[in-house]
């Protein structure tokens, strides 16, 4: 009853239509992991999803069986590496969400994950290029600054790269920023909208607090900026070696997936989310990917928004961001080529 009530509320709040024309298969790669399981649970509630295909190396049949008992309309299937499971999960997928990979541990940066996660993402990209070349690909696997370029290079080699349909999920940065600012200003987080641009790791994360409508002291700016940039470290340290952000990341990933579905099959106009995508904003400085607000439409990214007016403080943050971001992107492109 709880799931049915939640699903009904979910649909009502977003005014979803659920005709056969706007139902889609969604694949989650890495679905048995710490992010994958709660992410799949949230996607099971989305009335745009007709088939939820879960893939992981192990344990997905059990996760799928569990989720399949929830009384929403989507079918759930579980796939492993055996018996062409990845192919079965990907074929006919409209949206593919990828949280696969190893989590951060204390003392690790997202870049420390590169060697392991880069190979995982490359393998999944090769499979997606073959089995669902027109799907919308949502990459959560860290380091996003590098894994998105890896995926792009694999798709380019296969001749199926569409920059409008490849997204790095940076939504967690704006979710955190909204929460952290609301705590300081004693506001409801739903009323606190913070634009965050750049990348998805450390100093490449640039919150544009000057556009929030709030006033901050220099001390507040420094503290908030650092907390938004390194908020993931709080979770890693609090979990004491047991992993990194999973529940908040699942929430953010589901929000972005929901927005893509609303725009591509739900017919909703003016859907805007932040995302790390192929972008011209700083292409003149050799940076081909950048996260900013993007407007989504039936074919994916329709418009990439610029940064707008920013403060001198933020201009300095952007310049520091670009130095690291350029290196992160180059590392990913080199690996994927």
Automatic annotation (TrEMBL):
Any one cellular-component term (Gene Ontology): mitochondrial matrix
Superkingdom of source: Eukaryota
Active-site residue numbers: 200 (proton acceptor)
GO molecular function: L-malate dehydrogenase (NAD+) activity; mRNA binding
Record keywords: NAD, Oxidoreductase, Tricarboxylic acid cycle
Residues annotated as binding NAD(+): 30-36, 56, 117, 140-142, 249
EC number of the protein: 1.1.1.37
Main EC class the enzyme belongs to: oxidoreductase
Domain Lactate/malate dehydrogenase C-terminal: 170-335
Catalytic activity reported: (S)-malate + NAD(+) = oxaloacetate + NADH + H(+)
Gene3D superfamilies (alphabetical): Lactate dehydrogenase/glycoside hydrolase, family 4, C-terminal, NAD(P)-binding Rossmann-like Domain
Pfam families per record: Ldh_1_C (PF02866), Ldh_1_N (PF00056)
Subunit structure: Homodimer.
Family: Belongs to the LDH/MDH superfamily. MDH type 1 family.
Protein name stated in the entry: Malate dehydrogenase
